[in-house]
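In the current project phase, work has continued on tokenised descriptions of protein folds. One protein thus recorded appears below exactly as we store it.

——
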Amino acid sequence: STTRVAGPPGCRLLRSFDSGDAWSEIGTFSLGDGTYPTSGPPFSVEPGVMLLGVWDARYYEFGTCGLAIYRTQDDGATWQQVFFDGEMTYGKHFFSGTNQDELYLCAGAGGGGAGGAVAFTPDEGVVLKSTDSGRTWHRCLAAESPTSVYDGIAWRGSVLVTARERCSVFRSIDDGVSWQERSLSLPARTIGAVGDRLIVTSDSAVFVSTDGGETWSMCRAPIRGLVLRYPIGVPGTEGEIIVSAVGWRSLLLRVDLASNEWFIAADFTAFLRSASMTRLALSGDFVFAGDESASGVLMRVPTNKLQRRSTSRHRVLGYALARRPRMW
């Protein structure tokens, strides 16, 4: 878990060993004087080795760039900055490659807000690659148009990354040397694998591939105006996933991919007054949902309490209240 520091600009990394009952700080990160660092989720490479991407939060309003990668090999006791690029930003999602010690980071370069206008799109999408367990990094993909390369996965010999504003997936079968683009009809956000299916989340829809990312079919949600992210398999089921869904409301949706049935697993807005419970992770017997707004709320839901409530009421509300989703 990461959180912004109140007071002097900084970004703290917190860790829990008891499913979130207690937390301890294992690092504070900065990009230098006058910066306002924020981060994506920490990435565990192997026992004792972790990575964290840190960039300037002013990017969203003022286009301020600067991306650093921090690495620890002593379980968070000490951290080393192993990469910095003053033109890059938004390095949120790491993932392991198909070979030993091979890692990737989805990021962007340039773009963002200007003069106080909020914007989330880099001038180009970038993928960084490491072949030495995160000690050094180089670019292996540059999508040379305004887009965020948002998320990625290595799956059955292929490497796939999502290009959000290009509404596409880039796929490599030679470990990032060359790439082929597969177009979708909606923004491509997070990507995951459940069973024999690859899943890309989008706006009130998910795209599913059963042939390793060559072709994709869309499963549309019955509720409009929601941005979906972080597909996670529901424990004890076959072909069911949960996704975070934010926009006019903050929901946890449960999807049966085989039948394209959608259910409400949790409604966070009903008791949190938040429409930004975006972050989602599974750990042990719990699903954790995190608020990406200034409140920074972290919710914990037991997996055996994930509901299958009808979407009927929310479907009506969604069509009545939905507006164009924020692009982030």
Remarks:
- DSSP finds three helices and 27 strands in the chain.
- The CA atoms of residues 48 and 75 lie 4 Å apart.
